[in-house]
Amino acid sequence: MNSLGPAAGGMRIRVGHLYPEYLNIYADRGNIAVLARRAALRGHELEVSAVTIGDEVRPGAHDLLYIGGGQDREQALIAPDLAAKGPAIAAAVEDGAALLAVCGGYQLLGRGYRGRHGDSMPGVGLFPHETVAGERRMIGDVLLESELVPGEPRTIAGFENHAGRTRLDAGAEPLGRVVAGFGNDGESGYEGARVGRAIGTYLHGPLLPRNPWLADWLLAQALAHASGGEPPELEPLPDRLEAEAHAVSARRARERGGRN
Ligand code: GLN
Fold this sequence. Notes:
Layout: E1 12-18, H1 30-40, E2 45-51, E3 64-67, H2 72-94, E4 98-102, H3 104-108, E5 112-114, E6 120-122, E7 129-146, E8 154-168, E9 176-180, E10 190-191, E11 193-195, E12 198-201, H4 212-227, H5 240-255
Parallel strand pairs: 1-2, 1-3, 3-4, 4-12, 5-7
Antiparallel strand pairs: 5-6, 7-8, 7-9, 9-10, 11-12
Helix pairs in contact: 1-4
Glutamine (GLN) binds at residues 25, 69-72, 75, 103-104, 133, 161-164.
């Protein structure tokens, strides 16, 4: 945490990082580092606090909640505690807080996950989906097309590795359409889910370093919650390395030869 605080005119963005010691495969924590850096470059400060087993999600305490991915074993350890936090998490999103959930965290923010060994884990019920693990793991680079910003289709590139097949309820909003890769279930052509300012996705890598527009979308939503106003236009950054990382990842996904 930066003890100097935000620059003049900058805001403090309060991030609640759920179960950082349990859910952090593929360096999912890197997503927080990207948010912190991109916030700082615009004069804002990210204040990150861990919210783990036994902690409360206090009303109004977070502008953005973040939960990473994990193995079935870690998911089973935290699932009952996370489910108990469900109403508070849903209330935070209802109140306009932003949220990013990756893979194992994304699965548990739905209604539930039946893991590889048949163990049923309760979910939060924020995202309208259910997940059941299949035999074959879905692994590789992924490319999506997303209309998170209406009328402005953008691509999202990342890496997926999951046994879970996530089925969205009819009419639920996905994060994007699969251009290459498996996505939610390898069949529907959809990836991820979106409810208000909350997004869930299978994409690791981590996700945000190679998709800076998505990092800025989340920051703008979190700033809107912090200020009580509209999401601000963030000053553009050069993003040369980020664009290269995105291009490499997108090319690898395309080389998989279309939807798997
Ligand atoms: N354990 C879950 C699965 O295999 C999630 C994996 C992950 O977070 N990468 O589906």
